[in-house]
Structure formats: C-alpha cells, structure tokens
Amino acid sequence: MKKKIILLVEDNPDDVDLTLRAFRKSLIANEVVVTRDGAEALEYLTSTGRYAGMTVKELPQVVLLDLHLPKVSGLEVLRAIRADPNTRFLPVVVLTSSAEENDILESYGLGANSYIRKPVDFEQFLDAARQLGLYWLVLNQSPFLDH
Amino acid sequence: MNFLDIRTILIGFVLSDIVCVIVLASLWFHDRGKFPGLSLWAAGFALQTASILLIALRGFIPNILSIVAGNSVNVVGAILLLVGLERFLGVKGRHWHNWAMLAAFTAAEIWFALLKPVLAARNLNISLALLFVSAQCSWLLLHKAERRLRKNGWQAGIIFGLFGLASVVRVFQILFALPGNDFLGSGWFDATVVLVYQMLSMALTFSLFVMVNRRLSESLDVDISLRMRIEQALRISEANLKEAQSIAHIGYWSMDVKTRDFLWSDEVYAIHGIPPGEAISHDAYLQRIHAEDRQRVLTAMRAAMVGLQGEFGIDYSIVRPDGSRRTVALNGKNVTDEAGGLKEIRGTIQDITERKELQREIAYLASFPTMNSNPVIELGIDGEVRYANEASTEALISLGLEPDIRQYLPGTPEDLSALWSRCSTESIAREIRLGEAIFLLNLNASGKDTLRIYAIDITERARLEAAVKELNAGLELRVQHRTSELVAANAELEAFSYSVSHDLRAPLRSVDGFIHAFLDDFGTLVPEEGLRYLDRARNAAQHMGQLIEAMLQLSNLTRSPLQSKDTDLSAIALEICQELASEAPERDVQWSVEPGMRAIADSRMMRIVLDNLLKNSWKFTAKRERAHITVGTLQDPEHGSAFFVRDDGAGFDPKYQAKLFKAFQRLHGQHEYPGTGIGLATVQRAIHRHDGEVWATGEIDRGATFCFTIPNPHATTPSLEEQS
C-alpha cells in the first residue's frame, strides 16, 4: 500500500513547521505536500501551472485547508475543488484560526468535510493532529476506490 | 144784537198775544245762541199782535190802517213765522211765492177795502192767505223737516193744520153765507173764528216753547254723552300715555322759569325713585343729579333759561334716594308766553341706564376686533369693505403699501358670492403675499352677504418653517452621512474581529508551539529556572489566547441577531453545572437549580450568560472546602421577577460594585483567581440585548449573588388607563 499524501494548504511558515512537527510527533509518516497559497493548491490538484507536466500522481488522501490565504482564499479553493468533477469528493478538512461563525457555516456550505480550529496551546494541537491522522488516514474510507 | 163782541174778543186776543210775544221773546233771548229762527218767531207774533190791534181799532183809525195794513201785517207775521220755522229746522226754503202772494193779497185788500169794499172778499182773501201760509208751516213741520226734529214739532204742525182747517171752514162759511160789510158786527161765526185763532195762537206758542225745550234737552243729552265719550277717550289716552311712559321709561317735565319749581309726570318720579306727587324744588332736583354731572346739567339748564338754547339734550347720571345710580337722557325746550317772554322749560327725561350699559357692552365687545393686533376685515360680496380694524391699515402702511385694503383681498366682485357660499360650510384659509410679508387669511361667511376675514402675519412662521425644512434636509443628509459612517465602522469592526480571531492567534500559536518544540527537543539542556521562564511565557501566550476568545465572544454578542424563543434556563444551568463538576470531580460543591425556570430569550446567549455566571461562582468558591451554588428566581422590589446565581465564595467589596460589569475590570489578582475580566461584561451585554437588567450584591468572603431579568417581549405594556 502506497503512502497516502496529505495536502497542507498553509501560508504561515510557522504553522507549516508546527503542523509538520505535530504530524511527526504523532508518528504520521505520510507525505505532506505543502502549498503556500490557494492558487498553488489548485495548480497542484489540477496539475497545472507550477505543477504542469508533472507525472500523473494520485490525489491526496485529505486536504488540510487554511482559510486565510493570499491570492485565492481557502473558501474559493474549496469551491473550486467541489466544482471540479475530479476532486468533487476529495475530503477537505478546514484547519484555521478563525472561529467566525460565518467561516464555519460557509465552509460546511461549500462542502467541507470537517472544520478544526487551531488551538493556541500546542499540546492541544498535537492532540488534534493525532486524531486527525488517525481518522482521515486510517479510519475514513476514501471515495477513490482504485487505491 | 151780537152774542159775542168781536172788538172785545180782539182786545183779549191782543193781550194774550202780547203774553205769547213775551214768551217767545224770552225764548229767543235765552236760546238765541243755540238755535236760529227764534227771533223771527217773536217778530211774527209781534206783527200778529200789531195787526190784531190795528183791526181792533177799526173805526178809530183810517181803514187803510185798520184793514189793509192790519191784515197785511198779519200775513207778513205769518210768513216770518214760516221763515223762522224753516231756520229753526234747518230747512232752506224760497219765499218768492209767499211775497208774491203777499203783494197780491195786499192789492186785493186795497181793492176790496178802499175802492170797492166787500167784507166777504176780504175775509176770503185773508183766509186763503193764512191757509196758504199755515199749510206750508204744517207741511214743513209734519213732513219736510228732518225726522229727528219732526218728533219735537208735530204738535206745532197739527196746530198749524188746525189753523188751516179753521181758514177752510171760514172760506166755506163765506161762500155759503156772505157776511155784511162790517167785520166787527159780522156775527158769532167770525167772533168764534177769532176766538179759535186766539186759542190756536196760544197753543202754537206753547207748542213752539215745548219744541224748543225738547230740542234743548235732546242736545243736552247729546252733549252729555259726547262729553262722556270724550272723557273716556281722554282717560284711555292718559292711561296709554302713562303706560307708554313707563314702558319707554320716558317721562315729561316742565319747570316754571320764575319759581324754578318742577312739574313731573309720574314716570319722572319713578325714574328718580321718588314717590309721585312730591313737590320738586329746583334744589331737590339738583340733589338727585350725580355730583360729577351736576355742573354740566346746571349749565345746560341755565343756557336754556336765558334763552341761549331753544332746544337742548344732555345725558347724565342720577342717584336715587336708595343710592342706586341710573343714567338718564334729558331733552328740553323753552316755551314762551303770548308776549314772547320765557315762560317755562318743558321736556322729557328718559331712563337710558340699560341702553347705556348695552352701549358699554357693545363698545367692550367691539374693542376685541378693534384692538386686535391682527387684521380683522368684513367684506361685502358686493366688494365693499364694511369693516376693517386699525391693524389692517397699519399692516399695509408698515409694509409701505397703499392702505387700500380692497385691492389686496382675494376674490373679484364676480366670484365673491361663490366664495361666500364655499365659506358658509367651512372656513377657508388662504395665503397671500404682500410685498415681503406673507399673511394667512381665514375666510368665514358672515350674515347673508358678508365675508369675515381674520388675517395673521405668518412671515416669521413661514421663514422658520423654511429654516426648519432646510435644517431637516441637512439633518437627513447628516443622518445618511453618519449612517454610512456607522456602516463603515461596523464593517471595520467586523474586519477587526476577524483579524483578531485569525491573525492575532496565529503568532500566539507560534510562540506556544515553538516554546513547546524547544522544550521538547532541548529541554534537557535548559536549567531548571529557564524551564520555569519558558513555562510562564507559554502561560502568558495561552492567557492572551483566552482574552482574545473572550473579546470575540463579547463582540459576537453585539453583532449577532437576537433569536428569541422559549428557553429552559434550568436545563441549561444544570448542563453547565454537570460539565463543571465533571471537569473537577475532586471539588465538593453543592448545586441547587430551581426547576422550571423559563424565559423568552436567545438560548445561545442565555447559555453564555449562565456559563459565565456559573464559572464565576465555580471559580470564586474554589477555596471553599464545601461550596454552595444556587440558581433560582426571586422578586426584586425594584426590578420585579428576576433570576439569580448565588454562591458562598469570595464575594466582593460592594464599593467596587460599579466596576463589576466593566470589561477588563477585575476585583481579584490574576494569581488569586485567574480570569479575563470580560465575563461579566459579556453577561451584561447579553442581558441588555434582551432589554433586561443585571446587578450583583455581595460582601467580601460572604459570597455574591448575580441577578438578571429577562422581560417577556410579548407581554403588553400596561396602558395608561389600566395604570390609573
């Protein structure tokens, strides 16, 4: 069984490092692809732009999406993912600092599978990362049956 | 030998006739002014007496005297008697035929007495002449005269008739037995005739006397009844006059110029309040005049008395003996005697108190439009200005306009009556512009053909209204401006909240995360004290995270819409208590939540309220070995039905009560009871959004009670009627 890819869409390098650390500490060894903005994330998913001409690769097991992103916002990325028949069923977990009701409602409205608020306390974050990995990488049955 | 001596009889006749003449003369003398014709009667009888005397003197005097003159005078006397009767009875008659008869008679007498003496012819002549006259007299009295007079004179008429009859009998006697030529010796028949004539003459005198007296008494009756009627009319007239005087309160008076005494009619007495009939001297009269007016009246009177004024009139006040004051109008004129000297002053006096009062009342009422500072105008529908108060013209003058009111009023003469009928149902308001000024005219129909116009200068009002309008427009703009500013500020606040929630927390996470990573990776290299410092840094970062969280909650409360519904507060409270208890199972806290507490409220906010309050209680009872926390309801004297959360924890100093609900205001040190200082502010905001009240009571170390009210939004506000 191939290692499943996690796509992390996050512009804050601190958050990227801490997220990666949390996964490492939680013994999640999957490949984590980090894209720094929404546009890059979409390019990756559609193999266009910077990722054009890349060898055909499988879609990530789960997308961890920050909402507050430069260029293309997280919500727009989500809308684009759901609009594209190829990525329509891709599990997307919103991972953000915002606890705004609007953000939560809009995310679910656009078809987010889960909404996790990044806690300030790193211990709690570690806990969250651990559970996230367990659930989405192990327990959850992917819609892509050919893998 | 004759049985009767005619001469003796004739002498007796003369004597009795003299008596008759005296009677008739006295009749004439007494009543000559009353009835005409009496003198002719006396004259007629006197002539008859004379004629009989002449006849009786036959033989002693020439025949021409005794026979011609005697008989002719007799006939003349008869004619005079006839004329007298006509005059007495008011009948106009002509007498040419009588005078012609007299002439013929006299001629025949002369012929038969002097030229060819025939006694029978003479007797026939005189008999026919007397028959002629006496028949006329009888006809006059019995038929020709007025019926009214006839009834007094019918006896005389019959006597004349008998005279006539006697003459007829004599004529027949003469025709059948011609007498001799000596009258005095003509025998018993003629003597009897003379006696009959004598008797009839006396009877005639008597009947004439009766006739006159009857007529006299009749006219006396007429006089009396006429007089009574006149007196009656006079009495009625006097009574009417008196009544008219008392109705009109007008009396008449006169003053004798010499004695200066007054003669007053009853009404003048009544006006002065003095019993009628009392003598009024000049001084007594002056006494009744009010002191203020006395001199004036006196002057007018004097002017009249010296003839300076023919007629005069003066109004003044009098004081009645009972002290009441009346106003009178006195009119007078002077009256001169035949010689042209001033005799008296005469005139009327009228009580005009009521009229004067009415005049004063009218003047008082009239002062309202007159003194009104706003124009008041009455305009006829013929276009004529009937009334305009001073303010009307003053308004025009002060505006520098021609003070001709008509040209500024609405309505041409043609449509004024149409305007009137429109006003007659409801008054009409119109604005007119006069130069710089604006007037509001209120038009009302008045009477049959006039319009009342009340005008108000609304220049200032119009100016103010315009200013207010302008101000309002400006205000509208400002409100719009402010609203857009507010919208922008709100948007900014939204953006700020978003940034706080997202951007501020990220660096905190980094701080916490990297310290954690550092400790994790290099913890063993750091001395004990360094580890403690790093721990405190992490605590600080986490505390800041809590602060941000609390602030966000506070701002969310303000921004999110209120969704009120029936909410079970007891259930929420119980849930929170259980959560708290499960988080710290080591603590011994006695919970008491009153069941069935409900409110129409936003359940999310109610959860925030109860969460904050219960956590507060939980926190401040941490140092109690055994704590009590109660949630329930109470009746507050000021706020009514309220919910409360009570604990027996640390309490607070009541003097800091005001600071309790202020954001970031804390009454306890962070080391003692950690907290954000925003919880109670959040509670207050949530309650205020429900239009409720929140307050707290407490003492240091004796616990605290937090109360709040949630008014029922559906409960109707009691109306004023119900309150009273």
| Helix segment tally of chain A | 5
Shape label of chain B:
rod-shaped
Uncertain runs of chain A are none
Radius of gyration of chain B: 72 Å
Throw out a few tags for this protein.
heterodimer; A: about 150 residues; alpha/beta; Rossmann fold; 5 helices; about 15% strand; B: about 725 residues; alpha+beta; five-stranded antiparallel sheet; 17 strands; disordered C terminus
Question: Outline of this structure?
Answer:
The complex is a heterodimer of chains A (147) and B (724). Chain A is built from 5 helices and 5 strands, in the order βαβαβαβαβα.
What does this structure look like?
The complex is a heterodimer of chains A (147) and B (724). Chain A is of the alpha/beta class and 147 residues long. Chain A has one domain: Response regulator (Rossmann fold, 3-Layer(aba) Sandwich), CATH 3.40.50. Chain A contains five helices and five strands, in the order βαβαβαβαβα. Chain A has a five-stranded parallel β-sheet, sandwiched between helices. The longest helix of chain A has 18 residues, at 122-139. The model of chain A has no long low-confidence stretch (mean pLDDT 86). With 724 residues, chain B is α+β, with helices and mostly antiparallel strands. Chain B contains 19 helices and 17 strands. In chain B, helix 3 runs antiparallel to helix 4 (96-115), helix 3 (63-89) runs parallel beside helix 5 and helix 15 (528-559) packs parallel to helix 18. Chain B is rod-shaped. The model of chain B is unreliable at 717-724 (pLDDT under 50). At the A-B interface, helix 1 and helix 5 of A face helix 14 and helix 15 of B.
